[in-house]
Specification:
- Belongs to the mitochondrion-specific ribosomal protein mL67 family.
- It is a single chain.
- The chain has one domain.
- The chain has 6 helices and 3 strands, in the order H-E-E-H-E-H-H-H-H.
- The protein has 156 residues and is of the alpha+beta class.
- It is elongated.
Amino acid sequence: MSGLRPQPNNLTRLLQQVQQDLKENHGRHIFVYNHLQTNQVVYSLTRAMDNTNALSQITFVGKKTKPPKLRKDVWQPLASITFPNSSQGLVAYRQLREFRKLHEHNWVREDGRYPQLREEENKFLVATGNLPTNKQRARIIMDQKANTVADIAAVL
């Protein structure tokens, strides 16, 4: 019966090997997920989206903009980025997160036109010179898909 069970030293060696492989490959792959309805974007270092990590990346813009937990059926993979080594991947991951934070803070445009809003809303904002309402601002900030694609191109 002892032949069926692996010996403790073999298990220890196997566990150490798996941990070493994980350490070497941590950050080598970046997975980008997109929300189907709001176009919010979440970056992940693992193939499966981690609820805690993903929720920390979603900013609170206003009422009902940050869910208490993520539903996996409304998130789809947007991109998968692979790097030659893990250090390059971790640097790119940090830069992508910084770019997104920058876009979230600098959302006001000089010309007053916002591609995330409908044409009649844009015409009204340009005519009156007003800033978008809170709901419109939330929609503008949460729509991160186009900026993310541009950021990925800039990082690579």
